[in-house]
Amino acid sequence: MSEIVIVPGSSNAPLAFLIARRLGVKPARAEIRRFPDSEKYVRIDSDVNGKNVFIVQSMHFKPDEYIIESLLLASAARDAGASSVSLVAPYFAYARQDERFKPGEAISVAAVAGLLNASGISSLITVDVHRHRILDFSSVFNGKWIDVSVMPDLTKYAASQGLINDKTVIVGPDGEAIQWAKIAAESVGVKEYGALQKKRYGDEDVKVSGSLDLKGKNAFVVDDIISTGGTIIEASKLISDGGGKLKGVACAHGLFVNEALYKLYSEGITEIISSDTVPNQTTRVSSAEALSKGILSIVK
Which member of 26, 102, 198, 237 is catalytic? Predict the structure, then answer.
C-alpha cells in the first residue's frame, strides 16, 4: 500500500487525528495562520514527497475560508512532490445549491467542484453528502468521489440507547431522505421505513406532509443535515398528529444554526444524535472509521 499522509485542516483537527490513528500513521504538521491583512498562510512541515496526501477539512460555519485553505494546502502538497492529493471533506459545503432556481444564480456545488478540479485534487471523500438533484458528483467533479455513511453508526447507537427496536418506523423527513432511512433501517434490522414530503418556501419556511401510517407506532427520524431544525419540528408535529410517537432524531451533520437546538428542545425533541463531522453537544459517534475505509479504498 502506498504511504499515506494525513494533513489536518484547521476546521476539525481532532477528527483528522482520529483518522490518522485508525490508519496507523502520524498526522503531518501543518502551520496555518493569517497574515495581518487576514489572508491565509499555510505550510506543510512534513515530508510528503512521493506520498498520497489526504487533506482533512470539514466545511461548516466558515465554508469560504476552509475552501480557500484547502486549495492552498493542496497547492503546497503538490509543490512538495506529493504523488496524489485528495480532499477528505466530512461536511461538504455548497452541496445544497445544486440547481439554478432563479435566473442569474450560481450552481454552487459545480463551482466549488470546479475549484477542486483546478487545484489538482484527484479524489474527494465525503460523508452522507447532500444529494437531491445531483445524485452522482462525478458529473461535476472530474476525479474519484467516494461518499461514506455514518447512518449505520448513528442508528446502532440509537438502538443501544433504547430509542429504536424492531418495531420502530424509520422516517426520512423529505423525499431525499429516503436513502438515509433505508440505510438506517437495514443497519439495525428494522423492516418498516419511509419518507415524508417537504415543500420549501424560504430558507427557514418549510411545510412537511405525508401519508405514512404511524398511528400507535414509535418513529425515529433520520436526515443528512439539521440546520435550522424547521423540517424536523414540522415532521415531529406530523408524526404526533398521525397518532405516532417520535422517539428521537439522528443526523450526520448537526449544524444547529439560529438557536435550532433550543427550538427543538422546546418542542420536546430532546433525543438528538449527530456525528463529529460538525462537532457539537449532540455528537455521539465518529465518522473516523468510515472515512478511514474510504481513504484505504483509494490507495489500495
Answer: 198
